[in-house]
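Action item from last week, closing it out:
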Amino acid sequence: METLQDWLAHCESLHPKTIEMGLERVQGVAARMGLRLDCPVITVAGTNGKGSTCAMLEAIALQAGYRTGVYTSPHLVHFEERCRIHGEIAGADALVPHFERVEAARDGVTLTYFEFTTLAILGLMAESRLDIAILEVGLGGRLDAVNIVNADCAVITSIDLDHMDLLGGDRESIGREKAGIMRTGRPVIVSDPVPPQSVLDRAVEIGADLWTLGRDFNFSGDKQQWAWAGRGRRYSGLAYPALRGANQLVNASGVLAAFEALRPRLPVTAQAVRNGLGMVELPGRFQIVPGEPALVLDVAHNPHSVAALAANLDAMGFYPTTHAVFGAMADKDLAPMLAKVGPMIDRWYFTDLPTPRARAAAQLQAVWQAQNKRADTAASIHPGPMAALQAAVAAADPADRIVVFGSFYTVGGVLKDGVPRLQAKHLAS
């Protein structure tokens, strides 16, 4: 195994299951690797908003002059996107030695793809002389491989129903799992405006330093600017974050609270906050690609995030026709997702995805038909995201809008050759 792709194929073959919850196997391998992050660590868990929160934490820290390391998952196109060192995507050649270290330390222990790759990325981060490490929790919190790291600050973003087969069937059960990233005596920032009681109870139970939105920090804003206030600091006249969507102020508020909680170790200036929020980028989160027709890319893949997508689409203004390319995993709660965004969509393009975990396009269409209440809509099925997008472009007028959403595989499938530059058929000549 010489290349990163060789190692990723090896990781996929090791374990019969995609997910096996539990920390014992990963902790044992990490101990044999001597894995240790010698810098402040922020761990981010939640159902929605994790990626945006990590991106804003990174952007502000970079503007403050800190050397950053960020681990997020999954990736959109290339595996290396999961790790950024000082704002740059890690190189495949830099990652390979750390896959070799994991294999050497594994000593016969069976690791899932996520566990093996998490250890390799943490290994690279540990050797990168970081000032701050930002770790996104892949699934849940308590039993996720990322939780082997004792974070100096935990951030819990919005919590909603997703992965219920593994995390529990209601927000209280899911919140209990997310709360597993808290540590005694250390700050935990809860940016969900209405957090499950289980999250608050767990913080009290273990003696974490709980920061909640509305009590320990809050924000306000008008159409031009917004303001934030925390326990010991205020910011006023802030420009809105560069990431689009009304929900981003909630995420940004949690980010500022995290920096306030860590101020003795990681001070940031008001200018770093302004510049970071103004320059932050994150592909696939209500990403609008200029052109005709307009193109929106969003990895919304559960009812809560799809509701936010629908609200953001509504705020964009009038488009004669909205076309939607959609693909999703088999375990998603499809009916409420389709119902929430359905009023906004005039034509659907359901797509197969290149993973056995995905719901077939024909099945997606059947679920849509069963709950569709509009007589003026149409739908078709396609073998892949790019084929579905091409069909949408062929059918769209220049003034229309195309939305690509659902799984990371859906959005990544249209980004794999770079950000699409679309042109309606009427302008092609």
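Closing note: The CA atoms of residues 101 and 313 lie 46 Å apart.
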